[in-house]
Predict the 3D structure of the following.
Amino acid sequence: MTGKILIVANPTSGSGRGMRYAERVRDLLAANHADVEIRPTSSRGEAEAFAAEAVQEGYACVAACGGDGTVHEVVNGLAGTDVALGILPCGRGNDFARAMGIPGAPDKAASVLLQGHVRPFDLGKVNDRYFATVVTLGFDSEVARLVYEGQVPFRGTAAYLWGLARMLRVYRGVSLRMTGDFGTIDQTVLLAATGNTSTYGGGIRIAPNADPADGVLDICLVRMMSASRILRVFPRVYWGGHLTHPDIFSYRTGSLSMETERPVVLFADGEPVGETPVEIIAVPGALRIVCPGPAA
């Protein structure tokens, strides 16, 4: 990677190892004569502001050091610009890093930045917010809310499973009207997940066919079902086998709208992005990303 690199580091990510991770990467990059700086965040929204400032300051790359929430903010500061996104995964889930093939060890992640293979990838957009992985509505957005609010004592998939067990006792579904290239669907649903990439929750393959380079979004819609049925179906999600279940449907679309009888919160990349009604679109080639493999 040529040009200046800014590492935007979330110090609280990875149970407080975010700065150590960032400093290790900085030292490795500097040893290879890279021009690199770290800016730690201290509050929500700062990562996006730092990324937007880096665009104006002439940086070639902004590396998000943290989890999917940090990536989400940096993505919204860089989308539609020529500044590349680097990913230094040290958060709870790291689903976007997984989709991009970014290794978790700091020396290996630093090596990806040094190799400098930059490729364009799609993003999704929900109203005015870009997202990198999956937008959730319904049961899974309520689980994401528990994680976001710090009510979950675990990381990664364990956090999702803990939230799932807690929500199973109280969740009653949502009446959803969804319109896209597939037509219009009116259904009481357990969840509707819209994926630019295939996984959320630390590797749960909710939209197994989603590809961030195909220009469309993949939707997984699950009709409302009993808690016992949810528990029987859930293990299939780890390898994408849930799509064969008769109460689960998949669609592909370039855009869609979602309306509910009452406002329902949506989460994207584990971050709140507003309430229904919403418009969601695919934005092909919206972001340049430093990743393994040859440049396109």
Summary: The radius of gyration is 19 Å. Residues 58 and 134 are 30 Å apart (CA to CA). The mean pLDDT is 93.
